Amino acid sequence: YHATDTPTCRRTTVIANGVATSARAVPAPAVPRFLVSGRIAPSKRLQTVLAAFAQVQRDQPTAELHLVGQAEARHAACLAELRAQASGLAVHFRGADPTTSYLCEPFTAAIVLGTHQGSPNAVLEAMAAGLPVIANASGGTGEIVRSGETGWLLPEHCTAAELATAMRESFTQPARSALLSIAGRAYVRAHHGLETMAARYLDLLRSPASSRPR
Hints:
This protein is an alpha/beta fold.
């Protein structure tokens, strides 16, 4: 994510985040099953996600939505509102899982919405696990999720209806979902692997400019 407003310095180097790539992609689930992972906060637009899921579940009663993450104390009211909105829906609030073991489970797609995003690791981790990603074009997300190539990229201020459409497509068009997951996993492996990130840090530290006073 190439910010235009940076601190005054001799040189700015952008090093993309890197994540581990799983040995094999997880197979698709037997029923539509969606993942949201990360902090529970107002900026994550989870109300829109729940509204979209409600539309999906009306058409597909077996669908599930799994929210992995926790809310900070200052966002306790947000969590309470989400639980109330999710009443009657197949929404599972699973709490935090720092091991990211949930990425070994079968999911139809990972959903990542946000406002003022940087470059979300939730996007990279899902793609590295072979999960199709549905995201909005906020911050650096649009540099990773290419619409129709590595996932579904929705407008930054997407509506619940637009998100629900992408969610339906992810399980009614399994061949397309499979191609997006393969392409997304390959993209992360090529550009956002741990080895790639480490090599870029080493290149920076070994460059002549890094030995000068800063």
